[in-house]
Design a protein that fits this description.
Structural class: mainly alpha
Order of helices and strands: HHHHHHH
Strand content: under 5%
Number of helices: 7
Largest sheet: none
Radius of gyration: 24 Å
């Protein structure tokens, strides 16, 4: 039987390289999440387990990149799996949406504080974004970069 890389061709006729399987990488992501959950419950931490697991994965990737001296410490299989997950990210919000609909009475009861928090946080995000753009965007350089007519 011939190697799959030599038998599969792209539309342009180039040989396709075999892609690494996604399931082992997804299992690795779940192992990091499980480790985060275990740490969160074992030490009664106020941080959710998946966040701790994500920080563990980040630390592992930093160490991997430092040891290899690579510009990118993310293995191609992990990048491919995470891109596939991000492509279907909207599906991950379905359980949260179902959870919200089970608490509609509580939402109605707390509608004013929730609306106030949304409004204030939106305005704060817009203000911070505007200030950041003003500080790093065009026109934020010192005056000495301009000629006598105010041009750069």
């Amino acid at each position: 039987m011939a190697n799959i890389a030599t038998t599969c061709r792209s539309a342009t006729g180039d040989a396709l390289t075999p892609t690494p399987p996604i399931l082992p990488v997804l299992a690795l992501l779940l192992v990091f999440q499980l480790a985060g959950e275990a740490l969160s419950h074992a030490f009664a931490l106020p941080v959710p387990g998946p966040v701790i697991g994500m920080l563990g994965l980040l630390l592992a990737l930093i160490v991997r990149g430092w040891r290899k001296g690579a510009a990118s410490a993310v293995p191609p299989a992990l990048e491919r799996a995470t891109q596939a997950l991000l492509g279907h990210l909207s599906l991950l919000f379905v359980p949260a949406g179902v959870g919200v609909t089970t608490h509609l009475a509580l939402l109605a009861e707390e509608a004013v504080p929730i609306a106030a928090a949304l409004l204030i946080s939106t305005l704060a995000a817009i203000a911070v974004g505007g200030l950041l753009m003003a500080s790093v965007g065009p026109g934020s350089r010192p005056e000495e970069d301009q000629d006598e007519e105010g041009r750069r």
